[in-house]
Amino acid sequence: MAINFDKALGIHPYALQARVQRSEILASNLANVDTPGYLARDYDFKAAMADVESQFNNSGSGFVPQLSMEAQYRVPYQPALDGNTAEMGVEQSKFNNNAMDFQSSLTFLNMKIQGLQKVIDGR
């Protein structure tokens, strides 16, 4: 009997990929925190995961879900006079939270792979 890795691993590889994409955009926000007119952006992680999950639930065999994430502009807590909407404290907090969530996603994926390894080894 063949193992379908896409179904066995579930949404965890997609969550990891989404966390990587989100860290890139948050790092961009941090790098441009002093750039006049820069507009901070972010991804809606929950919406992206809900989309992937619905694709999994509505798909047949052999279908590979697609991760689609669209960057959205963020409304600042305290607007700057130069039009920049990236705030250092907010960006650092979001980046750190995303890094912790990345570690959690990586741990879940690792646990899934270890479980599959046990099944393959017959343990």
UniProtKB/TrEMBL annotation:
UniProt-listed GO biological process terms: bacterial-type flagellum-dependent cell motility
Highest taxon, organism lineage: Bacteria
Record text on subunit structure and interactions: The basal body constitutes a major portion of the flagellar organelle and consists of a number of rings mounted on a central rod.
Family recorded in the similarity comment: Belongs to the flagella basal body rod proteins family.
Every Flagellar basal body rod protein N-terminal domain range: 15-38
Its job: Structural component of flagellum, the bacterial motility apparatus. Part of the rod structure of flagellar basal body.
A GO cellular component annotation in the UniProt record: bacterial-type flagellum basal body, rod
The protein's name in its UniProt record: Flagellar basal body rod protein FlgB
InterPro entries to which the protein is assigned, alphabetical: Flag_bb_rod_N (IPR001444), Flagellar_basal_body_rod_CS (IPR019776), FlgB (IPR006300)
Transmembrane regions listed in the UniProt entry: none
Assigned keywords, A-Z: Bacterial flagellum, Cell projection, Cilium, Flagellum
Subcellular location: Bacterial flagellum basal body
